[in-house]
Design a protein that fits this description.
alpha+beta, 6 helices, globular
Length: 167
């Protein structure tokens, strides 16, 4: 997992800092931040309660192929976001496939199916589509905390299945 905490109140223009860091972060900055100020656009600000000033970007979540498809990414992301979001006004992500090594995703329909499944997983945590494949989660929302218990139960069940299969 790769997360970036972007401080919007530390003097440096966060929009341009994200542009310098990576293309993916720049794409997120173009949707959420004002290039002149480096702060959230007025439209984004109106959607978010003020609970902090930073932006947490969930940039990459990669699982070993044998662990994919079991909902484990959502469980782990929930725990990571819960620990990292203090002081953040928003958490952002762009659901999609980052591991292009899989040859099974050469078919466009399969690519779209997997991408939709990833987006559905992030939506289960409370992320909501905003614009241009950027999803937002407000730390003030109770969605993440409400899902946490169910996700922890799911992890316990996965652990039980795994233990039973190696016994």
């Amino acid at each position: 997992m790769t997360f970036y905490r972007v401080h919007l109140d530390r003097g440096r223009n966060a929009y341009w800092a994200m542009e310098e860091e990576s293309e993916e972060l720049y794409e997120t900055a173009q949707v959420l931040l004002d290039p002149e100020t480096g702060s959230f656009t007025d439209e984004v600000s109106q959607r978010l309660e003020y609970v902090g000033s930073a932006l947490l970007v969930m940039d990459r979540v990669t699982l070993d192929p044998s662990w994919r498809g079991h909902g484990l990414a959502a469980v782990l992301a929930c725990e990571a976001i819960t620990r990292l979001m203090a002081g953040c006004r928003a958490v952002a992500c762009s659901p999609g496939i980052t591991d292009l090594s899989s040859r099974r995703l050469t078919d466009r329909a399969e690519w779209d199916r997997v991408t939709a499944k990833i987006a559905q997983g992030w939506e289960s945590l409370g992320f909501r589509p905003y614009r241009d494949n950027v999803y937002l989660l407000s730390p003030a929302s109770q969605d993440l905390e409400e899902q946490r218990g169910a996700l922890r139960q799911h992890l316990a069940e996965l652990s039980g299945f795994w233990r039973a299969s190696v016994s």
